[in-house]
Amino acid sequence: MQTIKFSSNEPWQKQFASLVRQRVNEYFKEKEISTKGNLSLYTQTAAMLLFYIAPFVLLLTVQVNAWTGLLLAIIMGIGMAGIGMCVMHDAVHGSYSDKEWVNTLMGASMYLLGSNVFNWKIQHNVMHHAYTNIEGYDEDIAVSGLIRLSQYAPLKKVHRYQYIDAFFFYGLMTLSKLTRDFTQLAKYNQDGVTRKFHINPTMEYAKMVIIKLAYLFVLIGVPILFTTFSWWQILIGFLIMHWTAGCILSTVFQMAHVVEGAQQFEPDKDGIIHTEWAVNEVLTTSDFAQRNGLLNWYIGGLNFQIEHHLFPNICHVHYRRIAPIVEKTAKEFGLFYNVKPSFFAALRSHITRLKELGQPVALQYGN
After folding, report:
1. Minimal CA–CA distance to 2: which of 269, 274, 277, 265?
2. What are the residues facing 147 on neighbouring strands?
3. pTM for this one?
4. What is the pLDDT of residues 124-164, one digit of tens each?
5. Rounded to a whole number, what is the distance in angstroms from the first to the last CA of the chain?
6. Rounded to 5 degrees, what angle do the CA atoms 325, 315, 93 make?
7. Model pLDDT for residues 70-79, shown as the tens digit of each residue
């Protein structure tokens, strides 16, 4: 894979990166607070784990009818997505705590989604955050051939109605990770990524198999053994739980990057993106529903994606406070600070962008 370099001849771009970092650092120094998690984060963690575990315990200990079982599976899916957004996400970024063992422990909550921590680190922390909205590098805009999220990706007939059917495929995100983790790890091993991060691929494969088998046994095998539901009812509940979580996670992530005004880039023939990295993050990312406290709480601050991309090592509980600093600085340098006023405004914008990307001539954002 070609190496990408961010480089600009405009001095103000480096000045923006330096000033926004300085101002945010000064905020934490003046307030004398840590950039990591606090009591609010720990409360979120407990709530999301409760959303996920309590319905499962109830299914195992109380005899309920099929419709109640279905409702409990949906609640588990909501909790699963919450764990991914509020707990695992910060922990794998190293922003949950200033203690590495705590980040490692909380990052292991990824296994409650049936997925693999190392794969997520590479796909999200490395590829997505380093190369946001860059065709061929950011795996988050290369979801599937059935969905076109990049203006530089090949257009197919199936994309024409993606603004309608994309959300069904979004729901398959966590479910597909159960098997796609293996092919993804094989690709990372082939590309030399495992070697770069000193990962033994054989051990990683073995760990992956053991954890996934244990996960499937607990979520499917245990209910078969200890409830009155038939195997096919349990399997349907398992699929619905994953579809609920996948749809929430995918939709929230895409509303921050595939919306009107969020730019997309591809490197030139020399592998250069002609903006500085910090400027690229502002141009390719969008905030939404900044004043919606309940939404911000549930989705782990992922509605403040501009702040998250500029400061991934700062815990999400602080994003609402530093957002005005980032916005003010961006506007001082003439940068478009892309923010949608509400969840539904962002959702509409994402649907509009999906529709544009499904047409032969899509509105181009970026180079």
Report:
1. 269
2. 144
3. 0.93
4. 999 899 999 998 888 888 766 789 999 988 899 999 999 99
5. 21
6. 120
7. 999 999 999 9
